[in-house]
Specification:
Layout (H helix, E strand, L loop, with lengths): L11 H20 L4 H51 L9 H8 L5 E5 L11 E2 L8 E2 L18 E6 L4 E6 L14 H5 E6 L13 E4 L15 H4 L3 E5 L11 H11 L10 H9 L8 H12 L11 E2 L4 H8 L10 E8 L4 E7 L3 E8 L7 E4 L2
Antiparallel strand pairs: 1-4, 2-3, 4-5, 5-6, 6-7, 8-13, 9-12, 10-11, 11-12
Length: 378
């Protein structure tokens, strides 16, 4: 009698293969799994790495955002004042308020406050030097409070439409050159202290508070522009040539003042080194070769820089260079040159250049018009 029971559709060797495949898959799944302890350790490592790196990333982002906002604002302000210069609307105002009322036609200003109501448009306090008490901004009432002793004008606080708050003092001696496209109108016409983040913290000079022209002290409060404990000496002022900084002396002016300034000889033409010496109050208030070496060590983040005329290859710290140049009117380039107080002859004086990948001590012509006057408290 026939057996009508159907054979299973899977042959024995196929069944064994399927069973083996199932067991293998199960084995692989278990072998690749993480235990709870391994997962927690991994998460802890990620947390530690994040705690170390995120603050640095945030700081770099904030610094970049601040520098970008600063550059954009100054460019807009420069465009506005250049246009005023072209239309012969830049000069001829007896007060800062009159000037600001005209400025409003060229750049959008949402609020204006006179010098009795400064803090209605600007921060109540600003930390000018780290570690010092905040400065009461309600006391910043005239141009002298912004470092311009020879401008007889009051200050005015404004709020720009892009969120920047500022305190402005107008230069009543401003001249205009409507046919000169290279005229540095912004620096020549005003001293301006501004905050690119409005009333939000940190409200600190060199962080979100910036300035162009000679705003190196406020309401009689002075201090070192860079950390004295790191430099080993105090930089009290940094001035660019002209545009709110310092100008050259003629030979006649140099001859009249060289005794007081401790200058031995005078250049036959425009003498920018002598002008820098005068701006700082004499060669004794100019940096020495040793001090400029210390400055180079600071802005290059290295101790390998030495004296003499040799070239030292190093990479300029752009953040520290920007901090240094932010105190110098009319200076924005990442590279710079600083006069020393050391005179070589009637034609030359010594100084140090600070370039992107090298720095050196060298003698240059006293008529060079792009070098910085750095004043020190010796």
């Amino acid at each position: 009698m026939k057996n009508n029971t159907k054979e299973a559709s899977v042959k024995p060797n196929q069944r064994n293969h399927a069973t083996h495949f199932t067991h293998s898959t199960h084995f692989l799944t278990r072998a690749n799994a993480f235990t709870l302890a391994e997962t927690l350790i991994t998460l802890a490592i990620i947390g530690v790495v994040a705690a170390i790196t995120i603050p640095s990333l945030v700081k770099n982002y904030n610094e970049h955002a601040w520098l970008t906002a600063k550059d954009v604002f100054e460019k807009r302000l420069e465009v506005a004042t250049r246009q005023m210069n072209t239309e012969e609307k830049l000069a001829g105002y007896s007060s800062t308020m009159d000037f600001v009322n005209e400025l409003k036609k060229y750049i959008k200003i949402t609020r204006v406050c006179d010098n009795n109501n400064i803090t209605k448009c600007f921060n109540k306090e600003v930390i000018w030097n780290e570690g010092e008490d905040p400065i009461d901004m309600s006391t910043i009432k005239n141009a002298a409070s912004l470092g311009q002793d020879d401008w007889d004008t009051d200050t005015v606080a404004v709020q720009f439409a892009n969120g920047v708050n500022a305190i402005i003092a107008y230069n009543p001696n401003t001249t205009q050159e409507p046919f000169n496209n290279t005229f540095a109108a912004t620096a020549a016409s005003m001293a301006i202290l501004y905050d690119v983040s409005g009333n939000k913290n940190p409200n600190m000079n060199g962080k979100d508070i910036a300035h162009n022209t000679n705003v190196t002290q406020l309401a009689g409060v002075t201090g070192c522009l860079l950390p004295e404990e790191e430099l080993g000496f105090c930089i009290s002022q940094i001035l660019g040539p002209q545009n709110g900084g310092y100008g050259p002396l003629t030979k006649e002016q140099c001859e009249e003042q060289k005794g007081d300034l401790e200058i031995s000889e005078c250049f036959y033409d425009d003498d920018y080194w002598a002008g820098a010496v005068k701006a700082c109050g004499g060669t004794k208030n100019m940096p020495t070769e040793s001090q400029l070496i210390d400055l180079a060590k600071y802005v290059y983040n290295t101790d390998s820089i030495n004296g003499g005329t040799s070239v030292t290859y190093a990479t300029l710290d752009t953040e520290k260079a920007a901090q240094f140049l932010s105190a110098s009117p009319g200076s924005s380039s990442g590279c710079f040159y600083v006069w020393s107080g050391e005179e070589r002859s009637s034609n030359g004086a010594y100084g140090r250049d600070f370039r992107s990948i090298l720095t050196r001590w060298l003698n240059d012509g006293r008529n060079y018009s792009y070098k910085l006057a750095v004043c020190v408290d010796n």
